[in-house]
Specification:
This protein is mainly α. 78% of the residues lie in helices and 1% in strands. It has a domain of 210 residues. A hairpin with a 2-residue loop joins strand 1 and strand 2.
């Protein structure tokens, strides 16, 4: 007799995991079909593409905060850095995506490695404030180097992106490209979370002193998480600049950093999938609520407070609780 047949609990768990995987696959397929559902509504497809970029950005912050517990108040630094570097490379060197995007990510990782070597040695509020300071320094550099970056007007005139020499101009093609990057990033993040590296990160998040006591290189692993988070954030920025054909100084502002943090909290810190949902929901809600009232920030602030108090696990936590209740009723 198999183990599953001998143990009903294991059988139920395997069945639940199978349903969860099937549900995730169904959601992924449904996301890929968005261009077909938005036929005749090009703006809605553009908004969906923006939401996918926001989801990648939210995932990048959760790689750091959700894995190691390091809270960044200046994650927009890497978002804006990626946007400006990619835009400048496309204008001055080549619009080829297979050159621009990897170069941008590598540049961000190098800068993050240098700055992170100092930042990750700090803990708590000190780390958070220093990341905010870093983002404001990058924000100021945009205006200092206005001859290159365009200053207050932003970086304009980014050429149409190409892939293997073929220009990408169709909105549907753009969406599938962005969606493919999101799925690849999410799959890689989930794999890392289940790997020994991910488990070491989680041990640091739970208790850094105990992790150091058992021989884990706490600062080294924090730095690795910081660099990977910065690289993925810069990837989101590069895609945004190439998608919009421009980069704005607002991408580096403290307000943008606050929005990214809201993505993660709304979806559920440390859940990976949750922040992706949070970025998508926030993007659509921001558009539709702001079209109804100019005081939309008040409503979002209230929602943020409500989620922190009532549902600290975010959207993912609420969905997980509902799923467990359904399974309990089934048993």
């Amino acid at each position: 007799m198999s183990d599953l047949a001998a143990n009903p609990a294991l059988e139920r768990r395997a069945s639940g995991r199978g349903l969860l995987i099937a549900g995730a696959a169904l959601v992924a397929v449904a996301g890929a079909l968005v261009p077909f559902w938005t036929t005749g509504a090009p703006f809605l497809l553009m908004l969906a593409s923006q939401a996918v970029i926001a989801a990648i950005l939210a995932l990048s912050l959760d790689l750091l905060t959700g894995n190691t517990g390091l809270l960044s108040f200046g994650h927009a630094a890497w978002f804006g850095f990626g946007a400006y570097v990619a835009g400048l490379l496309a204008k001055l060197v080549t619009p080829e995506m297979l050159i621009v995007v990897p170069t941008t990510v590598i540049a961000a990782c190098l800068v993050a490695a240098v700055t992170g070597a100092v930042l990750v040695r700090q803990i708590g509020k000190t780390f958070a404030i220093l990341t905010l300071a870093l983002s404001q320094i990058m924000f100021a550099l945009v205006f200092v180097a206005s001859d290159i970056t365009g200053g207050e007007d932003g970086l304009q005139g980014v050429p149409v992106m190409t892939v293997l020499g073929q220009p990408v101009v169709q909105a549907q093609t753009w969406y599938w490209l962005l969606y493919g990057v999101l799925l690849a990033a999410l799959a890689a993040s989930l794999h890392i979370r289940r790997s020994p590296l991910g488990r070491a990160w989680l041990s640091i998040r739970e208790n850094a002193e105990r992790a150091r006591f058992i021989g884990i290189d706490v600062n080294g692993l924090k730095l690795l998480a910081f660099v990977m988070s910065a690289g993925l954030g810069a990837l989101a920025g590069a895609l945004l600049a190439l998608f919009n054909g421009a980069a704005s100084p607002d991408l580096l502002s403290w307000f943008e950093s606050g929005k990214i943090l809201m993505f993660v909290v709304l979806g559920g810190v440390g859940t990976l999938v949750g922040p992706v949902l949070g970025g998508i929901v926030f993007t659509f809600a921001e558009h539709y609520v702001s079209s109804l009232t100019s005081a939309w920030l008040i409503y979002f602030g209230g929602l943020f407070i409500l989620i922190v108090i009532v549902a600290p696990g975010g959207i993912f936590g609420v969905l997980g609780h509902a799923w467990r209740r359904m399974q309990g009723q089934g048993r």
